[in-house]
TrEMBL record:
GO terms for biological process: isoleucine biosynthetic process; L-valine biosynthetic process. This is Acetolactate synthase small subunit. Keywords: Amino-acid biosynthesis, Branched-chain amino acid biosynthesis, Transferase. SUPFAM superfamilies: ACT-like. The gene is ilvH. It catalyses: 2 pyruvate + H(+) = (2S)-2-acetolactate + CO2. GO terms for molecular function: acetolactate synthase activity; acetolactate synthase regulator activity. Belongs to the acetolactate synthase small subunit family. The lineage of its organism: Bacteria, Pseudomonadati, Pseudomonadota, Alphaproteobacteria, Rhodobacterales. Residues 30-105 form the ACT domain. GO terms for cellular component: cytosol.
Length: 186
């Protein structure tokens, strides 16, 4: 197996692997961007992504230093390694940006997301939804005779898995906050 196929998790000997071996590898990266907390900064940062056709999978922003007037923008984006480097370099050159951290390559990081999921159902579907919520540690934050609203915190993958299980049980709506992330350790 060559390094490219190992990275993609495919065997170079499989007759069923129809992917182009020369296609670029697309990676997901979580970027933490410390910016000046002033009007228009978020629009400028997002403009960098939209102006160059980069996709944003998740975006969160909040003031983190009131006295220093700084905010933290956490962006999850995808691209080839060259595109990710280009994004980081372009963000770093922006005037209101103080720091750019690629949490994906800087070491282990903790990532969490909050989601609210509305599930409608009766009878066995309702019982199954409650059973799965308990397994996933989702809390019931609203209940009617015909629906629940579950609150769940976890990794994006955990929330995706819970939502996938709730779909056949009557998932009607979902609201997600986007990823909040910090590096582990000191």
């Amino acid at each position: 197996m060559n390094a490219l196929n190992i990275k993609r998790g495919a065997s170079s000997h499989s007759a069923y692997d129809l992917r182009d071996p020369n296609a670029p590898v697309i990676e997901s990266h979580t970027l933490a961007v410390i910016v000046e907390n002033e009007p228009g900064v978020l629009a400028r940062v997002i403009g960098l992504f939209s102006g160059r056709g980069y996709n944003i999978d998740s975006l969160t922003v909040a003031e983190t230093d009131h006295a220093g007037h700084r905010s933290r923008i956490t962006v999850v984006t995808r691209g080839t390694p060259a595109v990710i480097e280009q994004i980081k370099n372009q963000l770093g050159r922006m005037v209101p940006v103080y720091e750019v951290h690629d949490l994906t390559v800087e070491g282990p990081a903790v990532q969490r997301e909050l989601a609210l999921l509305k599930v409608a159902g009766k009878g066995d579907a309702r019982i199954e939804a409650l059973r799965l919520a308990e397994i996933f540690r989702a809390n019931v934050v609203d209940s009617t005779l015909e629906s629940f609203v579950f609150e769940m915190t976890g990794t994006p993958e955990k929330i995706d898995a819970f939502a996938d299980l709730m779909r056949p049980l009557g998932l009607k709506d979902i609201a997600r906050t986007g990823v909040a992330a910090l590096p582990r350790g000191v």
